[in-house]
Design brief:
Blueprint: H1 21-28, H2 40-48, H3 51-57, H4 63-73, H5 78-92
Helix pairs in contact: 2-4, 2-5, 3-4, 4-5
The structure holds zinc ion.
């Protein structure tokens, strides 16, 4: 199909952190407990709110939060998961929100 400009085009990759309804809901209501399956920000927010993250923030241990991140994001995506979780920890503390 020559002349069809879009015949072989692949759609652009979605943004790394697409806004999802649950994240949007959280922006409106910081006590929202809504989490969307498959949303990296929702997963990171869930971990950031967990006792494991609290223990890491307090310098008690980061073993639990690391395990949570690996569970949710996978070993291969640990660095990205950790970055997101710490972004959310700071957001939840009221910094950078
Ligand atoms: Zn989300």
């Amino acid at each position: 199909m020559s002349g069809d400009l879009f015949g072989d085009a692949t759609p652009p990759a979605p943004p790394a952190a697409p806004a999802c309804p649950s994240c949007a809901q959280w922006e409106q209501d910081r006590t929202s407990g809504a989490y969307a399956v498959g949303c990296a920000d929702c997963k990171a927010r869930g971990i950031a709110r967990s006792p494991a993250a609290w223990r890491a923030v307090k310098g008690i241990t980061d073993v639990d939060v690391r395990a949570s991140i690996v569970d949710s994001f996978g070993e291969d995506n640990y660095r990205e998961g950790r970055r997101l979780v710490w972004t959310w920890i700071n957001k939840l503390k009221g910094k950078g929100a």
